From TrEMBL, chain A:
Assigned keywords, A-Z: ATP synthesis, CF(0), Hydrogen ion transport, Ion transport, Membrane, Transmembrane, Transmembrane helix, Transport
Organism of origin: freshwater metagenome
Membrane topology category: Single-pass membrane protein
Chief location: membrane
Pfam families, per the entry: ATP-synt_B
BP GO annotations: proton motive force-driven ATP synthesis
Protein name: Unannotated protein
InterPro entries: ATP_synth_b/b'su_bac/chlpt, ATP_synth_F0_bsu_bac, ATP_synthase_B_chain
Source taxonomy: unclassified sequences, metagenomes, ecological metagenomes
Subcellular location: Endomembrane system; Membrane
Automatic annotation (TrEMBL), chain B:
Family affiliation: Belongs to the ATPase A chain family.
UniProt-listed Pfam families: ATP-synt_A
Protein name: Unannotated protein
Keywords, sorted A to Z: ATP synthesis, CF(0), Hydrogen ion transport, Ion transport, Membrane, Transmembrane, Transmembrane helix, Transport
CDD domains for the chain: ATP-synt_Fo_a_6
Membrane-spanning residues: 32-50, 88-108, 120-138, 192-214, 220-247
Localisation: Membrane
Membrane topology, record value: Multi-pass membrane protein
GO cellular component, one term: proton-transporting ATP synthase complex
Chief place of localization: membrane
Organism for this UniProt entry: freshwater metagenome
InterPro entries noted in UniProt: ATP_synth_F0_asu, ATP_synth_F0_asu_AS, ATP_synth_F0_asu_bact/mt, F0_ATP_A_sf
Length: 186, 255
């Protein structure tokens, strides 16, 4: 019995030893962990103090340049927009000024034209009045002369017919009345 | 044997003998350690070459490095933490490049092994991230950070007995485990898939009728290789963005 138990215990012990000696491919080994830790920690230290700074320095410088270039471009764009607005405002002012000048010139021209037309019309009216006066005077003179001539002829002819002097003043009134009535019909 | 296919044991796919140092020693240097070293060296050289280039217009290596840094700064930090998180750029850039390069060794000829298909790398990175976000929390909030983390402001007092254990578990226990296991499991799964199709292609490369299936298996291998490149990037991105989220949540009590 004891021998049997001892034999079983020995067999179990042998089996346990064999299992312990068999490497488990899943479990990490100390030497691999040691070297992985050494190389990774070394890489981390190198990365922090030697490898990464020059890279990030240039990347940051480029980012900064891109940022400043963008800002400069935005400033140039703002200046362009401002200049354009200024130019358009100037152009609008010049256009308004030109329009005002044109309008003033047009008004001035119109006023001058109206003045000249008025003057011409006044002149024409004056000439017309003078002419009318002259015509009226000539007409009056002609009528007077005609009345006198007709009166002389008529009175002479009548005195020759009746062989006696006729009232000249009365005949003159008759002739004037006749001439006036004849004139009013023309 | 799986349907006549001689598949290597899993430990043959992920375990590598030491190049120097005795087996089982804490300093034994194997292929995984070499991959981690190359990740350090490649990142260092890449950044040094990029840093030497002058002028404001990036070209070549500088273009690549600046794209990566800008991606982490604008795509991860600004989106998850905000402007205050820029100070954590060195840590997150290191994390991203280290994980991505160790992952991409999955598809690099003669290596064909992602460093993170072993639990050690993801566990270390998750542990460092865990310590880091706790340190950030202590720096910004003092000892109240622990209370604010397990009992977020605004939670009704009646719910605290329920919320505190959940938050304690999720913030301080689950976070590092989920970070490590997600990265490790994804990379290991991808590695096993590529090995499976590679072994299948080798097995099918014979003078029998089975050779007719070879083009399909090879096409799958090529497709999965492309897929693994994407997974390598994606896992690096996920790990980095989660680290940023955890750091950001440690900075402000209201998170």
């Amino acid at each position: 019995m004891l021998a049997s138990i001892l034999a079983t215990a020995e067999a179990v012990s042998t089996e346990i030893t064999q299992v312990a000696e068999t490497k488990n491919p899943i479990l990490p080994t100390v030497n691999e962990m040691f070297w992985a830790a050494v190389f990774f920690l070394l890489l981390w230290a190198l990365m922090k103090f030697v490898l990464l700074p020059p890279i990030t320095k240039v990347m940051n410088a480029r980012d900064e340049k891109v940022r400043s270039d963008l800002q400069a471009a935005e400033a140039a764009e703002s200046a362009r927009v401002s200049k354009l607005a200024e130019y358009e405002a100037g152009l609008a002012g010049a256009r308004a000024e030109a329009g005002a000048l044109l309008e003033a010139a047009r008004s001035e021209g119109d006023a001058e034209r109206r003045t000249k037309i008025a003057a011409a019309e006044a002149d024409a009216a004056s000439f017309k009045a003078e002419a009318s006066t002259a015509v009226a005077d000539a007409k009056a003179r002609a009528r007077t002369e005609l009345t006198a001539s007709i009166t002389d002829i008529a009175v002479g002819a009548a005195e020759a017919v009746v062989q006696k002097p006729i009232d000249r003043a009365a005949q003159t009134a008759l002739v004037e009345d006749y001439v006036n009535r004849s004139g009013s019909q023309n | 044997m799986i349907f006549g296919l001689e598949f290597p044991p899993i430990e043959n796919l992920v375990e590598w003998p030491n190049v120097f140092g005795p087996e089982g020693s804490w300093y034994g240097f194997n292929k995984i350690a070499l991959i981690n070293f190359v990740a350090l060296a490649a990142t260092t050289v890449l950044f040094l070459v990029a840093g030497r280039s002058k002028g404001l217009v990036p070209k070549g290596a500088r273009n690549l490095v600046e794209s990566g840094v800008a991606f982490i700064r604008d795509g991860i930090i600004m989106e998850t933490v905000g402007k205050d998180g820029i100070r954590y750029l060195p840590y997150l850039v290191s994390l991203f490049f280290f994980i991505f390069i160790t992952n991409i060794f999955e598809v690099i000829p003669f290596f064909h092994m992602p460093g993170n298909a072993r639990m050690a790398g993801p566990a270390v990175l998750a542990l460092i991230t865990w310590v880091y976000f706790i340190a950030v929390g202590l720096k910004h909030q003092g000892l109240k950070y622990f209370w604010n983390s397990v009992a977020p402001p605004g939670v009704p007092k009646a719910l605290l007995p329920l919320v505190i254990p959940i938050e304690l578990l999720s913030t301080f226990i689950v976070r590092p485990f989920s970070l490590a296991v997600r990265l490790f499991a994804n990379m290991l799964a991808g590695h096993i898939l590529l090995v499976t199709f590679s072994v299948l292609c080798i097995t099918l490369f014979s003078a029998t009728l089975l050779a007719l299936v070879l083009p399909f298996s090879f096409a799958m291998l090529v497709g999965l290789t492309g897929f693994e490149i994407m997974v390598a990037f994606l896992q690096a991105y996920i790990f980095t963005i989660l680290a940023a989220v955890y750091i950001g949540s440690s900075m402000h009590a209201e998170h």
